[in-house]
Amino acid sequence: MTSTPVIDVERLNLEYGDFHAVRDLSFQVRRGEFYALLGTNGAGKTSTLEIIEGHRTPTSGTVRVLGRCPRDRAAVRPKMGIMLQESGFAPDLTVRESVRLIGRLTQRTDRIERVLGIVDLARKAGTKVSQLSGGEKRRLDFATAVYGAPELVFLDEPTTGLDIQSRDALWDAVDELRAAGSTIVLTTHYLEEAQQRADRIGLMHKGAFHREGTVAELTRTLPAMIRFALPAAAPALPLQGRREGGEKFRIETHHLQQDLFILLRWAQDNAMELRELEAGPTRLDDVFRAIDNG
Predict the structure, then answer these.
(1) Do the Cβ atoms of 101 and 93 come closer than 8 Å?
(2) Do 173 and 165 meet the contact criterion of CB atoms below 8 Å apart?
(3) pTM above the 0.90 mark?
(4) Are 198 and 215 within 8 A, CB to CB?
């Protein structure tokens, strides 16, 4: 990665009348990085992305994308692929015509057959958009975003409506883009996707960053979790735990290995089976819950 950021946001503000949607936001995305911009509902991430993508003008602050103002579409748009949450394709266009149109609008070049092959839509090339299923439309959205292997790709809820095979194929294509040097910016409600793939995460809340960092940096601020189920007649636990409902328990700990050993030894000594046993660091969804409860 080079030292010059692909995205450079400094003291960004966006106001809608009396409502402050984005508050003094600053962050950078490095070249070749997989960056996830996540947030609670109404956090301001969509407004932030619209500014970075050049669709909206900020109230104040500075944004640079690939070294240029994102409103300079002639300079920036050919190097940037965008997969929106919802398709905006004309229903009467065919799949092939839709991809070709995006190529002309973005001034990127590629082979349509190659791109449709990536998303398994080659056999649908002559099919009208109106005749595609929801999952096929999402695959077409992805195809147009990655057409021409742009330097910077925005993926907004990319796997919504996709089956498992299509999700795997999409992420394989993203991996190939990254290997070729593309920078990826993801926003998603599927937190496990961000947890598994993102190099860094910017977590927004009420228009500002609540936290930013790697998954490990975000999750180590909260205790690790041990989850399991026990029958109602089980003896008292050797550690302080919280009943989550029915026979399920949760233990929060900053000493995972030590406390897990204590729990397993207790189960062995009492001939108890710890059903549905899970143990590991805090997950991103726990970080989100901590924000809402904070």
Answers:
(1) yes
(2) no
(3) no
(4) yes
